[in-house]
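On clarity, I found the account of how folds are encoded harder to follow than it need be. What matters is that the chain and its backbone geometry are given together, residue for residue. For the editor and my fellow referees, an illustration may be useful. For illustration, here is how one protein appears when written out as sequence plus structure tokens:

___
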Amino acid sequence: MKFLPLFFILIAAVGCSSNSVENYPKFSDQVKKNMEQSPKGELSNFENEIPDMSKVPNFLIPGYSFQLSHPSDYKLSGSFRSDFNGNLRLPYEVEVNISNKTFAEVKEMVVKSYNRFFQKGAEGLSFSVSKKEVWVEVRGLVKKPGRYLIKPTDSLDLVVDAAGGVQGDISTDYFNANLKQQDFEYKVLLNKYFESSSGGDKIRWLGGDTIFVSKLDTLIGKSQEIPFISVIGGVNKPGKVLYQKDASLFYFIEKSGGTIQGLGYDDCYVFRNTPEGVKKIQFSINKPETIPAIFPNDTIMMNSQVRTYTDIILERISNITSIISTIALLIIAL
């Protein structure tokens, strides 16, 4: 019900011609410009939000398991996993931290720690990486928050799925993932990430990573520099749609569930905030040359009046019948 005032305001704006504009950027002009600037037709819809970690050294990662053995002591046989903080606890209360260290450095620390247990030193000690898994902690709006072991190659969506997925409908709501990985802290809009098939969006897990999932309030999206498009009227799922650079009107309609059956296409509108105030742009889907380019924070209003040619004929017949009936009653009354 809280959307009704806004809806009626927009209805009133439709009937007001003082703020209407005729000379507005057309989508056909935008397509032509893009084709001239980008012959390959690449239309980037968002910038990569994931930092470049290519220069981070390939150290051992919290979650890795190690195989330990010594021919003269059966207690030094087994597989041992490093914890979330990178601490590796071994028999005889030996503990080393593997974070930010190479395998050679960790092995040297382990051998030195066991030298005191052997008269001739621990040179016969066998130490190797047995399994490469990564600890991550997932909190916030997920169904099963906690710490999980994942594969180093797992994508962010697989990690969120391991935690039961988001609490809510990601097809209608928007979710942020706040990631902290060593000295890196950044946010990823999950809706963008899940829709992207680009290999450049791959996250490099460093171990001991934390992910906090939160719901993005679309009402404050503008202040967070994440623009949305509002689609109302004759669509199956009216509401907010994440703005995509250079996307056409039809993209946002499709994201809103498509148009309702029998929609009238002649009187459609885009409401746009401008320095001179809110302006309305009238267009017709039946006239492609009038379809506007969509700007961030636009409101698209599809005509929700369903009227076919048959409906119009029946309406006219009904009106004529009503007039005839009225005349007949007047004649009878006389």
Notes: The longest helix spans residues 309-333. DSSP finds seven helices and 16 strands in the chain. The two ends are 50 Å apart (CA to CA).
